[in-house]
Write the structure tokens for this entry.
Amino acid sequence: MNKTLGLILSILFIFEIFLFGIPLTTQAALPSIPEGHGIAIYLPQTNGVAYIFNVSNINVSANNNLQNLITYFGTYFTPVIVFKNSTVTQTIQFTIPSENFTSIYYAEGAKVLIFLVGVVGSSVSNYSLPVSITYLEQFTGNLGVVVNEYGTAQTTLTQIGIDHLYVYGTTNTLSEEYNNIYMDLLNPSNAKPNYFYEYVYGQVTQSFTVATLTIPAQTTNQLLVFAPFSFVPPNFIPTPEATGFFNPLQINGNLGPALQSIASTEAYIWGRALINTSIVDPFVSTGYDNLTFQLNYSTPGPLQINLAQLAQIAALPDFPSKFTYLSYQFASGYWSFLGFISDDNLSITINGVSVKAPVSGTFTIPDPEKYNATLLAILPLSTATSMGLTNGSKLEYFSNLTIYYLYNNQIQHTMLVNPNAPPSSPSNYTLPVYVYSAPAGSTISITGYFNGTKYTVNIVVGSSPTLVPYVATTSLVATAYEGIKATVSGFYTTSPIMSTPPTQIAISGQTQFQAQAQFTSSQATATVTLLTNATLQFNNVKLPGFSFSGIVVTPEYPIINGTIAMQYMSTAQYFMTNGEYELAILGSELPMAISQYMGLQNFVISEPQYLSEPFSLTLTVPTVPATETGTGPLFVAFSTIPQYTYITLVDFGLWSNETSVVVTAYSTRGGITTVNHGYFYATIIPPQIMTTPITPQSFECYNAPDVMLYDPDAILVPGNPSGSFTYAIAALNYTDSIISNSAIIFYGSTVYNVSGTFGNYTYNKLTVISSNTFSYTEETIVSTLTAYQLTLNGNTISVIGPNGETSAIQLAYYADNNPTVNMYFEQSLFVNNNMDIELAYIAGLNVSYANMLLSPQNQVGYEEITPTGANYVITNYITFKILASNAPNLYPVNSNTFLTVAPNASFVGASDIYKYISTDYAVFHYFASSKQYKVETSVTVPNITATLYFSSTVTPLYSSIALLYLNESYYGANLPAYLAIGTGGWQQWNAPLYQLLGISATPLLLSKMMYVNVTLPSGVTYTIALTTKNLTTLFVSLNAQQLQYCNGTYEYQISIPGLENILHLTLQQLNNSILTVSMYDYVTHETLVASTKLVALKELQLVAAQPGQLFYFLTFKASGVSLTASTPWFIAQNMYIEPLLNFTDYQFAHTNPTSLLHLMVTNITVYHNGQVAMIYYNATSGRTIAKNVYGQVVLNASGNLIPQIAETAAGSGIFTGTLSFAVLPNNTLTTLTFNKINVFTNGTLAITLSNGTNVPLGPAGLFVLPFVTINGTTIGYDANVSVTVTDSVSTVTVSTYIIPANITPIRLAPVPTIPPISHAPLSTYYYTSPVVITPTSPVINIYATSILPYPYEFFILAVVREGVNASVTSPVVYYSYQAVVAKPALGSSAVPYILVAVQMQGILSLPPGSYTVTMYAVPFAVGPAISEYPVNLVFTNVTVEK
């Protein structure tokens, strides 16, 4: 790999995997690309490559940046392919013709450039293959809007075939320059046997700058896009040498965040997963291909294996003369045993009784030497009796016991033969193991001859089984084969494989043995140490002669012990060669596995090829006596039982967080092996159990918290028998040598090196394999699988056998090829009758509850859960509202819904305890010490603080009810829901429409009203006993209703009148007393208390009164004699301001604080100096009556028609209103006399009813008249108004007035100023400019207006004083009246103002000189001034000329 490619190692890819010809799409995120740099991504569906360049810091919308960027890129970017076959390697660089720049795109969201090139198959020649943006986003993530160089949005992109680019430096295409290569790329299947490889990358040949971004000269990552038979990406390590696998469930999120986060970056696979593979294979036609996958498991360092002695077999002299022993029964049911080798039949003595021992097997060594072997299991007497076995009964079998020896200087071997088996029978080598038993402490003596010498071995029957432990430290590797009938579509062969297939897997590792021997001239003695601590003793081996000693070891792990074993049967052979003394140590190293024979268990060789490979060592000394030591290689090898494969890998440390697996595929139809390797790493993740945050809201109404299980290692479920099954049991080829360049060797630093052979041949890349050198077996399963039942721990489980047989062991050979459901038969465990049970049923979810009344803690159930994803959510309901009971009950509604019904008294604090044990064996194994394989959580109902409260701390006694509320959220239900109050204060909860999981609510007694007390201010307390007689008096309703859906707030209405009635107390006596209610909640066990003060609040009272104002005009009634003899005339115009009354009535307001209330006005009386008029409401008759000033009834109508006084805001207790009066026109004059001065008045005072009708009360002037002084006589008075107001409880009568309003509407101004004068003073305005009066112009011009339309005649009075700005105290030398009248009215829109020429002819009679003239308006001669702002208009500088 060159340096540039090395820079791309951090750029990771995702590809599309085909499942049975159907693409499984995944959504990826765009790899991190530095600004200005690019990557290449392979697109399997289009046989193309997407070149992606990060241009995020260019503002492409500015100026012509987008077009410039695409032009520069198209000019300097060159796709590159490397074509390689057995004879040629050709690197071909291309340029993009300018007419194809339109196929360079910009993604606005991701801010990247995109260029697509077809590189193999028909895509090579396809000029414009459309590629959907949706498909591309499977590899890049969201691109946003994608546009061409003109900014036009695209829905599909065009992939340009590489033959439509120019070979670099020319204008020729690939087909024109390299036609042979072009044809191979175009039709790969025609290239056989001239196999080729195609690598693709991209180059920017020259850096260029657009805006602020420089695209440097660079090379993208290299992709292997085509090879004759190879794994295709995702390239977690972007090199053609290896391809990382992943499981689609990892992408779609079913494995949770721990694995999903690395789904597109690292090839981590959990145990027993189905992995989808995609292999490019152009030489197999569409349909199916038989593939065999080889998986090699390894770890980076030595592993320690725990082993135990399954058998010790030795010549008589090689046993201790006395030792204690009792056979051990392994998990498989097999018993450990001892094997004694002798010249003759052994004699066995038990408690003084001697019998001939049965012979298990015999063997002969040339010259000839014949030996017998007796295999004995020493059982407790009670055990043998219970099994119906007597001494000498057959207990089990052991086959293929092998003896190695030297003959004619060659290593030979023989197997022990069963003397009782028929000649040439397959069972010749099956040796029976016999039972001998005696009470503990007894001695069993074994006597016999070996090499002519008699020996006795005394065995003391132990009180406990003898288990001899051994340890082996070695670097182990494992090899598995998996046969799959794979789908072929186009160039692609697709197949799922299992990470740990339940097939026979070979496990091997190399260690060493040591030997030390003492030589004499007649015999030798040797000690041989196998593994780490297994010692074999050879005593007194004669020269020449033999001795035999060996052990059979089995893994010392809970499930697999006694299922597989390793036979180390060794021979010590003493002889002389060329005058030297030699001791040869020869031994078998045979993998063995348990099986059955004649209804009993039997151990047989699982890998016969090991017979040709014994361990051996020869110690040589030239003279004796002497001692010599030596070491030799020793193999540890096991061949797994298929149903225990996964367990064995875990136990041996070959499936751990340090495991790497290298995968190679072999096509039996193509006869070839993949040119590259797949790989993945093992991962083991402990389970987690979590709950959503537990709050009281979690248990209210229909709510339930969730319990979440996370266990990605254990997501798979037992297989589906309707699926398609195939299996392959490949013959494994073991060797002690590493074959260089073999197909399975992987060179690299991130995947650990493994070695071995594949298919019995040495394979070199680019070498054609003409013959099918690997055997593949496909078997068809029966069409109908019969199920039978098995009971395990009280649970009935369906176990499926291929032919309905009583043993389902063979199911472990089958793998379900349906990765969409991800099911298969899990690793299993032998139970009764040798039937296997999936581990999914060994562990699961235990649910119990705690902290409940009458039942402190109970185990209530075991739930077998088989989630289809790593995240499993259980909904946990805990309630008391249904299925009322005095004891708790738990109901598993289904596998992920639990319902616990607790008694209401123990609902708070009730707990459901969830204990989950992972179903994955690796999790159990690696987290056994930390206990992380099992997790626990609880769901506990928390307490709440229920509240009992009155709507207010103060309850007005004028209110009809006191509102009491109970807030108990655990009482929540859908509407209607109520608490029914009964005798004694018991309250029954009922929600007739409430259902939980289809179960209706049960009426329950949940609370009790303990007492209702009233404490008077004096301290005297009255307690009301709740009886049938007074409940309906005290409570408005006996059903306290829930106010809102599921909020648990219930409303009680306590009757205030009822309270007075029961206690026989008046409102005044109850004032300032305390009403207290106590209630006991049987759910929270709280005693709740609520209190309110019964108060008669401040009653109705007047706060303020603002008098009304009635506006008058003052004019005159001409007498016809003179102006001074005219009669003043007061004309009532309108109610300028109505009388305003402000009241407070807090007691009344609190009777209904949420509504605007009104005070009722029942009487309004207007009077002055004996003149009285009134309107009033007669509550008895229900009628409104009005009498005018003359005592006449002018109104008698139904209802109260007098306007009411409204509250300013709800609950404020402040009431404000006006008395509505009006002035009605009246042309009849009324004469009034004041100190012999008569005045006229007209206009009728009326009161306005609530319906808008005006009721006349009489002439306004009889009640109110403006205050003026006429001829020294003061005229005027106010009207008194008396008002009676009530709130239906309290009544007050208050007084106010109607006063006359201002009668000075006239405004004057000197010409040319238009009145009114801005900012004029109230009294006097001085005009200082000179004014000249001459005989020809004897006038002073002024303007006049009125602030109200004034239709009457009035006068401008001009008063003359001598001198400039004469003082008002100066004598008057002249005065005159100037009449003014404007029609229809002065100040109206028709006559807004008028020019008045005040005639001053009389002033000409005065001497010429300077004068001061004061003008003001009067209604009549000697009348009061009716002008203001100013009252007086003073001309200070008037000159009279003659």
Summary: Residues 42 and 1120 are 122 Å apart (CA to CA).
